[in-house]
Write a structure and sequence with these properties.
Radius of gyration: 32 Å
Distance between the termini: 72 Å
CATH superfamily of the domain at 113-252: TolB, N-terminal domain
Strand content: 5-15%
Number of strands: 8
CATH architecture of the domain at 113-252: 3-Layer(aba) Sandwich
Number of helices: 24
CATH class of the domain at 113-252: Alpha Beta
Length: 574
């Protein structure tokens, strides 16, 4: 009992001292765990030895006598005071340790380290004229960018948080949907040339306010407002997460308020992704550059726009990609550490130059500069899939989904990777998740093809009807039903091929951009290798955007040994 009491007291002191001095000495986080393990091991050894041996009054270590022998010897009665003292001391120490453990547990529940995650919702425009939408979106985006500087903090991407724009949903529900423990919401009110911005940080678990503040400034001081909001939030999170205050460095790309406003407009239109909006985005970025020729973010924005427009067929492919590449390099010549420029360049090198090594280098650089960049994870997952590195593609798209859980495109790509590996049921699940977020042709096409692979012909027919409908074509449902009754799914696939060959829609997916490639895949579903190869060569000659995917998945498995197919694959460096 004496050994246990002394050992427990000494162990407690050692643990307390270690917990206090470890941060100051810069010891690694596992130090305390190692000491606990050593103390537990030592306790077992000490208990065993104290059971076997005793220390006599002369201070010598002797083997403990059997209890029966001790009873037989008429030992003089001794005081039991030390025993009582030992018992009390032991119980007090054990009770104090238990109290400390409970206190630590309570702290971890009270501050669940906030799961180190946050979603920044788009700020609400409270101005009387309702003309500050782009500014509201921009300030939320700037706060997101500032928060990503915290390495230990998971910051949800703009695409997912902005899906809740103008939706009157409970903050706690939004937080649960996005998988975060804290949500930041705010509003912007412009009165004359004066801005009033409010921001509040909310705990998702119980809806309580962790922090709130209001800022009032002249419009010219917009940068100061953004800095103060970002720094206040980050400082609050540092205290909540790490228990220590800290500083964040705000990297401004321009000091010109007009150029900055134009950049915000460019981002606002870029996220909408329609042809008209992308053209407006280009116009805004170009105007920003005219005002500030060294505005690296605006150049990176232009690179991104031309990348998207060229891939979707909104702009001549070669010319658009070349423009995008030029603007990306221009941005990097101004700021080599700009993640947006590295990300845009990586995407262009993937889909235009087929420079797989260069693309991977740029995208990894983008991720290292901003570990919260969901787009960079998306782009590199696509690259890994193209290269047949399926495990890495899956890892990267999972990271992208973690940061952007409300993205139609992320789920669509996740479904594509399952499809390529032959997991058609999982591909269907992901495509349905994608459609829950936004109606689009990509997941519908995945559902159509996956169900054909599974011989679920009725389901495939249903999704083909939706594809035809979403592509603004005349209602062909009765014709399709008649063909299906007469010729089955093969007849439907042949009808779909003819429909693709005749249509004149410029829609980015089902129109001219990937027309030949889509037809080639349909011939592959029919098992017609000759027609599939002919259509694929037409796609190659036209430089259709989806070509890098031809060497992955089941679509062209029947052509893998064909010399003409191999020639195309080799020319792409695959």
């Amino acid at each position: 009992m004496r050994v246990i009491t002394v050992y427990a007291a000494a162990a407690f002191v050692i643990l307390e001292l270690t917990d206090i001095v470890a941060p100051s000495l810069g010891l690694p986080e596992w130090t305390l765990n190692l000491i606990i393990i050593l103390l537990v091991a030592g306790f077992i050894i000490a208990a065993i030895l104290s059971w076997i041996y005793d220390i006599n009054p002369q201070g010598e270590m002797v083997k403990t006598e059997p209890s029966q022998k001790v009873k037989e010897e008429e030992q003089p009665t001794t005081s039991n005071g030390w025993k009582i003292t030992s018992y009390i001391s032991f119980l007090v120490i054990i009770g104090f340790i238990v109290f400390q453990v409970i206190a630590i547990t309570d702290k971890s529940e009270e501050i669940p380290i906030l799961e180190r995650s946050i979603a920044v919702l788009p700020f609400e425009d409270m101005s009387e004229q309702q003309d500050q939408e782009y500014f509201c979106d921009g300030i939320a985006e700037e706060i997101i960018n500032s928060l990503t500087q915290l390495d230990s903090l998971k910051v949800i991407a703009r695409t997912s948080t902005f899906a809740f724009k103008n939706k009157q949903e409970d903050i706690r529900e939004i937080g649960k949907i996005l998988g975060v423990s804290t949500v930041l919401e705010g509003s912007v009110q412009k009165v004359g040339n004066r801005l009033r911005i409010t921001a509040q940080l909310i705990n998702v678990e119980d809806g309580s306010h962790l922090w709130s503040e209001r800022f009032e400034r002249e419009l010219e001081d917009v940068f100061i407002i953004q800095d103060e909001i970002s720094e206040a939030i980050v400082d609050k999170l540092r205290v909540k997460l790490l228990g220590v205050p800290g500083e964040i460095t705000i990297h401004r790309q321009t000091e010109n308020i007009e150029a900055y406003n134009l950049y915000l407009k460019g981002r606002f239109f870029w996220h909408r992704r329609t042809v008209d909006d992308l053209l407006k985005s280009i116009q805004s970025y170009e105007q920003a550059i005219e005002i500030d020729t060294s505005y690296a973010l605006a150049y990176a924005g232009l690179a991104d726009v031309y990348h998207i427009m060229s891939w979707r067929g909104y702009f001549p492919r070669e010319e658009g990609f070349e423009k995008g590449k030029t603007y990306a390099y221009k941005a990097l010549s101004i700021n080599k550490q700009l993640p947006e420029a590295h990300s845009a360049l990586g995407g262009i090198l993937t889909w235009c130059d087929w420079d797989w090594t260069g693309a991977e280098k740029e995208l990894l650089q983008a991720i290292s500069l901003n570990p919260n960049d969901a787009n960079a994870y998306q782009y590199i997952s696509e690259l890994m899939s193209v290269l047949g590195r399926n495990k890495e593609a899956r890892e990267y798209i999972n990271l992208a989904l973690e940061l952007n859980p409300h993205s139609m495109m992320m789920y669509n790509l996740s479904g594509l990777y399952y499809y390529n590996e032959g997991y058609y049921e999982k591909a269907i699940e992901e495509a349905k998740k994608s459609l829950e977020i936004s109606q689009s042709g990509w997941p519908l096409l995945r559902l159509y093809r996956s169900n054909i692979r599974l011989s679920h012909d009725q389901e495939a027919l249903k999704y083909l009807k939706e594809i035809i409908s979403i592509d603004f074509s005349i209602d062909s449902r009765e014709v399709i039903d008649a063909i299906f009754l007469e010729s089955g799914i093969e007849g439907i696939i042949e009808w779909h091929i003819q429909w693709l060959q005749k249509k004149e829609s410029s829609d980015f997916f089902f129109g001219s951009m990937n027309r030949n490639l889509t037809i080639a895949v349909s011939y592959g579903l029919l098992g017609d290798s000759q027609q599939a190869l002919t259509s694929l060569e037409k796609a190659f000659e036209a430089g259709e955007s989806g070509l890098p995917y031809i060497n992955t998945g089941p679509n062209f498995a029947l052509l893998r040994d064909n010399p003409r197919f191999k020639a195309m694959v080799n020319e792409m460096g695959l």
